[in-house]
Amino acid sequence: MPHVRMILALHNHQPVGNFAGVFEEAYRTSYLPFLETLELYPEIPFALHTSGPLVEWLIENRPDYIDRLRARVQAGQVEIIGGAFQEPILPMIPPRDRVAQIRDFRDFLEDLFATKVKGMWLAERVWEQALTSSIVDAGAVYTILDDVHFERAGVTREQLTSYWLTEDDGRLLRVFPASETLRYTMPFEPPHSTYLHLKSLAEKNAGATVVFADDGEKFGSWPKTFDHVYTNGWLKHFCDMLMGNRDWIEPTLPGKVLEQTLPAGKIYLPDGSYREMTEWALDVESARVYRGASERVSRLEEAAAVKRFFRPGGFWRNFKARYPESDEMYARMMMVSRRLEGAMAREDADPDYLEVARRELHRGQCNCPYWHGSFGGLYLPHLRGAVYRALITAESALDDALGGRSADVAIDVADFNLDGRQEVRLENRRLIALVRPAQGGQLYELDDRRTATNLLATLERRPEIYHDAVRKSGGDHEAAGEHKVDGVLIKDDGLDSALVYDRLPRKAFVDHFLDAAATLDDLALGGDSERGDFALGAYLSRIRRDPGVCSVIMERSGRAAGHAIRIKKTIALEAESSELKATYELDGLPAGESLHFAVEINLAAMAGHAQDRFYAAPGGHPLGMLDARLDLPETDGVALADQWLDLKAELSWSTPGRLWCFPIETVSLSEGGCERVYQSSGVVPHWRVVGDENGRWSVVIRLALGPVKTAPNPAQARARQSQPALP
Hints:
This protein folds into three domains: 269 residues, CATH 3.20.110.20; 236 residues, Beta-galactosidase, Chain A, domain 5 (Distorted Sandwich), CATH 2.70.98; 31 residues, no CATH class. Helices cover 31% and strands 29% of the residues. It has 21 helices and 29 strands. The strands form five sheets. Strands 18, 19, 20, 21, 22, 23, 24, 25, 26, 27, 28 and 29 form a twelve-stranded antiparallel beta sheet that branches. A hairpin with a 2-residue loop joins strand 7 and strand 8. The longest helix is centred in the middle third of the chain and has 21 residues.
């Protein structure tokens, strides 16, 4: 009689830094009802991976769920799958951190559930062959990848009837292929569709093992799935289908398959991830070409035979090349990881603080903010903020592990952002500032150590492939409210009007010479009003150490409105100060002629449309929320306050000038559809600069960080934290 083994494997995950309300909603709509339903079917086993951030939340907030899950484990119904503790993309982190994260989580889970953990979930199924050594060295026996990984190695789907062996440096790892077909039928098609697929497999390959492995959130938390899966009974109908066909469908667990069957053979898998991820990693134009080519291949008569040789569109690591903001987080993470490695080799390092640093480093490696696809990921500012919060906290713990932070100020030069050029790091006990002289002399990271906040965790507005659908929605004048275009849910009317793309990084101390008639809209809407070559130009730089103060001095000779101009820009930090001072000295200004000079400073980590996040005049008078536009005729400063973070950034300049302020909002895609997301606020003081008798002009800009002085409202903070909406 035809027979097939079926492994049900779920991956439940919430990223570090996600809102408590999102955790709670996913628990209520997915994690709990799934477990409650399967408790009614103790004969149906399933494997479960729950990521570290989610397990920690469940232990603290829903311990009864952990108890119920432990009971299912002890009854033999559930096999716990491990992984890397804080759900990093493994190729993104050093081997030492891979092994540590996998081992830590295995030990944690074995203690929590009193069971042996043999398997590991590979985040986003991002695979590189060298991972085999790290996974095996960490004690894992098997992992699960998609069937497309195997197809790209030349294996047909008909051959995917069991697990396979792979090897690196003499280490052997068992790898299960997960079915893409089941990933699309479950739970979106009636259970009979899965029945027919399993029947076909059983008839062709009696005794075959088939694996369903996918996100647990699709069973209730994805849009419109709760009613389908639970209210309308899809999951119960599915379980009934399995129970009614137990004479030929054998629900089983990965560990039992390893005990009872032999591997299909040995295989070496090419680098890759699941099919959709390879497309998301491409730039927009390449993605369009790839989609067209993929469609042409699918129309070929021999499509089924040749499709497995159609290589993936992109490579996960190139998310770091496509999105500089991702690369900045990655480089910062590597900086902390290397420092931790050095500290752990020192006998005088405090082990308790080292453990704090290690834990926070691992949290800062959580994968979600490092990439973007059909989920918000990198575009979600609270997730980027959480990564930086963990890394800054780890850095402070390392200071404490090595005897505490110095009361002095330090300056260092190295390739901190891994771009092949030298950057400058200024640091004291209150601030860390990173400057890139070779790219406009910009300040690209500013860490407030008190709140563990990077105020320059900003994001550029750039084209995305799904913007094609947003543009089409603008031409559909009959559509109102939420509607779909080419399968993309458009959440807001008029969203196409927000498709604005930036020409420059949204960082701080970005130097502009603008057209004389330039307006607030020109900068806010990405207009081409630039008349100088300083914003991205390379500055020659040198550092200076004086008692109690360190400075980076940058100079550039360039062009502005047809004139040869020289800028000397000095960024200084004093010991025990929470203030950066930027001194601008312009030389070579044309006699009797004014030039329009502006300094752009973008600040992030704050919400846009919230009463407790606002602009304030130098005297403290509120000027509007942070998503407001301001066009002030003359002022010598402005403050951005965030009462929830208890953080205020005060900007002042020695020569009064006009001021533009505007929000940076992206049009980005997440599970809920396409919508506007506030990323940062642009603050741009600007002047009509006229040189003195020597053709010179100067201004000093101060950026000071500190508490708001009005204590944040705890109830309001909790409410903000529980909201599933973006900040």
